[in-house]
Design brief:
Elements lengths: L2 E4 L9 H4 L3 H5 L8 E5 L1 H9 L4 E7 L8 H7 L3 E5 L1 H8 L7 E6 L6 H5 L4 E5 L5 H13 L4 E4 L9 H6 L9 E3 L11 H7 L3 E5 L6 E2 L3 H4 L4 E5 L8 H6 L2 E4 L11 H11 L4
Helix pairs in contact: 7-12
Length: 275
């Protein structure tokens, strides 16, 4: 049974994941087995629990103890539930809690690329996307629009960043994903070669006058396709574009030159889905 802990001392060590640890510290690269992440809102926390993620503690507004937080408390077992009024918790975390509930959870070990891609026909590859909002939105589109998995490069924002998890609406727990490579130097080479070994052709989403239109029927006929999306602003690196099998663009109108990466991902995932 959970232990309800009213927040009276903001220096309580159990509150560190919510108040004093940065995203980098939560990740704990030196000791990955001790890494944590923060899930925010009942729906997102529920998706994480459904996927088998293990809770460490809950932080919620007092009014939710007998409301929307009650089922979560029962599902989380014997973990501490820190609680207080909304203004107090906002002063603790530095932001207003979405739906009034946070959950600190253990980070699971990341699977190998080969395991994530086994049986996949379409995967998304995110190169150096640094905005957690965009990462979360791309994950949501990938899950909804028929991608089988997501791979992120080592320079990409952590998909378990609190904002990325929240914006993804928990889909980061519903679609297989992992990091392709352990160092920045592992992408685009040998990362692209690794995908080729797994039987994937690669499509770089980039603005180029020689790029194929996303509507080109040849792309739909590719058995296994990795759709590579680049960072905000600069897009994909020239080395990545040169190393991919195809360069693909989304035709634009009204003299618009490009879409935000999150919007472009939704168009690309739908149009290039496996038929």
């Amino acid at each position: 049974m959970a232990t309800i802990v009213p927040v009276t001392d903001l220096t309580h060590p159990g509150l560190s994941p919510y108040a004093r640890l940065t995203e980098h510290q939560l990740r704990n690269k030196r000791r990955p087995e001790e890494g944590l992440f923060i899930a925010e809102s009942p729906k997102v926390i529920g998706h994480a629990l459904d996927a088998g993620y293990v809770p460490v503690s809950l932080l919620m507004e007092e009014r939710h103890l007998r409301g929307q937080g009650r089922d979560l408390i029962s599902r989380c077992g014997e973990v501490p539930v820190y609680t207080g009024e909304s203004d107090l918790l906002e002063s603790l975390t530095g932001y207003r809690l979405t739906r009034g509930i946070l959950c600190a959870m253990h980070r699971p070990p990341l699977p190998e690329v080969e395991a994530v891609c086994a049986g996949a026909r379409r995967v998304a590859v995110l190169e150096g996307i640094v905005d957690p909002t965009n990462v979360g939105a791309v994950f949501r589109s990938a899950a909804a629009l028929h991608m089988d998995a997501v791979l992120v490069t080592p320079t990409c924002c952590d998909p378990l960043h609190r904002r990325a998890v929240r914006v993804s609406m928990g889909t980061v727990f519903q679609i297989p994903w992992t990091v392709i490579g352990s160092r920045a130097e592992d992408w685009p080479h040998p990362g692209l070669e690794r995908l080729a070994t797994l039987g994937f052709s690669t499509a770089a989403m980039a603005l180029s006058p020689t790029a194929l239109s996303i509507e080109d029927p040849r792309l739909r006929e590719v058995a296994r396709l990795a759709i590579v999306l680049g960072t905000e602003g600069d897009g994909l690196s020239p080395r990545t574009i040169a190393g991919c099998d195809y360069t693909v663009r989304i035709p634009m109108s009204h003299q618009v030159d490009s879409l935000n990466v999150a919007a472009a991902s939704a168009v690309a995932f739908w149009e290039l889905r496996a038929r």
